[in-house]
Amino acid sequence: GKYYTLVRGNCDPKPVQKPRPPIWIGGGGEQLTLRVVARHADYANFGGTVEDFKRKREILAQHCKDVGRNFDEIRLTWSPEVFMRETEAEVAAAGSRSLWGHPLEQWKAVSLVGTPEQVSEKVAEYVAMGCVGFVPWCADYPDTTTLDLFAGVANQFRAPR
Fold it and tell me: How many CB atoms lie within 10 A of CB 63?
């Protein structure tokens, strides 16, 4: 191409995405990013608190109206850090493992941090606001405790195939 050349590049099996690959745009800039999402994206990926998600959703809906697009065409997703343990005591003992160094309570507000029951309740809040997908990243990697516990939570929300 104009900028890169790939010799003997291989991609098998070939992706089947018709008419084109879906366009994902992550970010929550209310004046620019969400306006670009309204014009071009198939998926919008936000971070932040439940209140942030609700506000971004409302602003995106207005941008869609402004550009003449059906808001329901855009699928909303959320990208949280995830840290789970079986008990609240285990979560508290771990302290703040946030990749950003936030205090535990602040970390809980913007992420999925807690027991399976607590995380399930929070996931349900986002789903109720129209969130159709999650892009989680485990804060305790390479430990697999969070991943193992989150698999159980995710199965509660999995759509039938």
Answer: 21
